[in-house]
Amino acid sequence: MASSQKCLGKGSCAPGPVPKGKIRLYSMRFCPYAQRTRLVLTAKGIETETININLKEKPQWYLDKNPLGLVPILETSSGQVICESAITCEYLDEMYPEKKLFPSDPFAKAQQKMLLEDYSKVIPLFYKIPMTRNKGEDVSALEAELKEKLSKLNKVLVNKKTKYFGGDSVTMIDYLIWPWFERVEAWQLKYCLDGAPELNNWIVRMQEDPAVKALKFSADVHKVFFTSFIEGKPNYDYGL
């Protein structure tokens, strides 16, 4: 996978066409949604060209590709553009069928998608709590809500009696859920996992996964970026 470079912002030159047979990822180094796609690319060993985008000062050429201005997006050498993190991951799993990450059984795949749908309702709380806390406001109701949702996620692992959400090895759903758990310590939310022992065990196991290890930032690095993000001055190139 090509190394991440400094982010491109307003006034930057548009990159040339995607080289034949390659795939390009438009990303942002600290974006958990883009990390989903990067995990899948890394796990599958897909050769990728990565271009990081300044999400606060988006280049016009990027908005022309994706009017929503979000990352990640994938672009193929034939000019196809695929948006939305979960959709990019499914696309990669179908286009590069070696080392399939989604189960081949339709019901098992549907189960992963249903769990993802549930998890998408948890994600806003990961942001809401630290941002509300930063304003000096009470977060106890939000904390209780997050603890309850994480407890349900913990119960999924208890009921399945497996090491991961899709079985005894890492599958697509684990990569789709993981990025926010990499950040719980940096975002000062680890205490919300106190009543979720199986989920904590899953976190420990995920930290040993080769793709997770290859892309992981330390809690300190995540903290620096997230602080800059909360203050409205995101330091997208921190550490470069």
From TrEMBL:
Keywords noted in UniProt: Oxidoreductase, Transferase
Domain GST N-terminal: start-end pairs: 21-100
GO BP terms in the entry: glutathione metabolic process
SUPFAM superfamilies recorded: GST C-terminal domain-like, Thioredoxin-like
Alphabetized Gene3D superfamilies for the sequence: 1.20.1050.10, Glutaredoxin
Every GST C-terminal domain range: 105-236
Catalytic activity of the protein: RX + glutathione = an S-substituted glutathione + a halide anion + H(+); L-dehydroascorbate + 2 glutathione = glutathione disulfide + L-ascorbate; methylarsonate + 2 glutathione + H(+) = methylarsonous acid + glutathione disulfide + H2O
InterPro entries given in the database record: Glutathione-S-Trfase_C-like (IPR010987), Glutathione-S-Trfase_C_sf (IPR036282), Glutathione_S-Trfase (IPR040079), Glutathione_S-Trfase_N (IPR004045), GST_C (IPR004046), GST_omega (IPR005442), GST_Omega/HSP26 (IPR050983), Omega/Tau-like (IPR045073)
CDD domains to which the protein is assigned, alphabetical: GST_C_Omega (cd03184), GST_N_Omega (cd03055)
Transmembrane segments: none
PROSITE patterns, sorted: GST_CTER, GST_NTER
EC number assigned by the record: 1.20.4.2, 1.8.5.1, 2.5.1.18
Function: Exhibits glutathione-dependent thiol transferase activity. Has high dehydroascorbate reductase activity and may contribute to the recycling of ascorbic acid. Participates in the biotransformation of inorganic arsenic and reduces monomethylarsonic acid (MMA).
Family recorded in the similarity comment: Belongs to the GST superfamily. Omega family.
PANTHER family: GLUTATHIONE S-TRANSFERASE OMEGA, PTHR43968
Name of this protein: Glutathione S-transferase omega
